[in-house]
C-alpha cells in the first residue's frame, strides 16, 4: 500500500513538473493522465472483483437464474456449493428445476437423484411462494446490501490492502 501511495504521488506530479519546463501537447497530457488513472484503478478493480467473487451470494426466489452448481445459493453465512462432477445432463440445471411447479415446494425425488448428499441442507431452505426473481446479496451484511463500510472491513479481515 505504501508503495502505491509513493508511486501515485510521483506519477501525479510528473505532468506538472514536465510542463513547468516543456510545453506538452494536450493529447500527450491526456495520455499521461490516462495512464496514471489506469495504473491506479486497475489494481483496485481487481481487488474489488475478487472480493465480490468471494463474498457475493445469491438468494433464490423462483430459482430460474440460479445455477445449482455454480452459484452460492445453499447458505447465506458460508461459501457453500455442491461438490463433485455434475453429469452432462445436469450441468446447466437451475434451482427452479428442483422445485415442484404444482405445490412450489422441493421435489425431493429430483434432489435425491441429483444432490443426495445435500438433501437435508436443501430441504431446510424454503422456496419463495411469491415466485420473486433471484437476486444477489452481500454475505457479510445482515441486510444483504453492499456498503462501502462492509466492503472495507471485509477486505481488511481478508488482509487485503
> What structural class is derived from the secondary structure elements?
mainly alpha
Number of strands: 2
Shape: elongated
Instruction: Give Rg in angstroms.
Output: 24 Å
Whole-number mean pLDDT: 81
Number of helices: 5
Beta-strand residue fraction = under 5%
How many separate domains? Answer: 2
Element pattern in H and E: HHEHHEH
Helix content: 40-55%
Largest sheet: 2 strands, antiparallel
Distance between the termini: 6 Å
Task: Flag low-confidence runs.
Answer: none
Strand order of the largest sheet: 1-2
Protein name: Reverse transcriptase zinc-binding domain-containing protein
Could you explain how this protein is built, in words?
The protein has 161 residues and is mostly helical. It folds into two domains: 2-54, no CATH class; 61-133, no CATH class. 45% of the residues lie in helices and 5% in strands. It has five helices and two strands; from the N terminus they run H-H-E-H-H-E-H. The chain has helices spanning 2-21, 26-55, 108-114, 119-124, 148-157; strands at residues 56-59, 135-138. It has a two-stranded antiparallel sheet. Helix 1 packs antiparallel against helix 2. The longest helix has 30 residues, at 26-55. The radius of gyration is 24 Å and the shape is elongated. The termini are close together. The mean pLDDT is 81.
Amino acid at each position: 500500500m505504501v508503495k502505491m501511495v509513493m508511486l501515485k504521488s510521483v506519477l501525479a506530479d510528473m505532468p506538472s513538473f514536465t510542463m513547468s519546463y516543456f510545453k506538452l501537447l494536450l493529447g500527450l497530457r491526456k495520455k499521461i493522465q490516462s495512464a496514471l488513472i489506469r495504473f491506479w484503478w486497475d489494481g483496485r478493480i481487481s481487488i474489488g472483483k475478487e472480493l465480490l467473487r468471494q463474498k457475493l451470494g445469491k438468494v433464490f426466489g423462483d430459482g430460474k437464474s440460479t445455477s445449482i452448481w455454480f452459484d452460492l445459493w445453499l447458505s447465506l453465512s458460508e461459501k457453500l456449493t455442491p461438490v463433485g462432477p455434475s453429469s452432462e445432463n445436469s450441468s446447466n440445471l437451475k434451482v427452479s428445476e428442483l422445485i415442484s411447479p404444482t405445490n412450489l415446494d422441493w421435489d425431493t425425488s429430483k434432489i435425491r437423484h441429483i444432490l443426495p448428499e445435500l438433501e437435508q441442507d436443501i430441504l431446510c431452505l424454503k422456496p419463495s411462494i411469491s415466485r420473486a426473481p433471484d437476486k444477489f446479496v452481500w454475505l457479510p451484511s445482515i441486510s444483504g446490501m453492499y456498503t462501502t463500510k462492509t466492503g472495507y472491513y471485509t477486505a481488511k479481515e481478508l488482509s487485503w490492502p
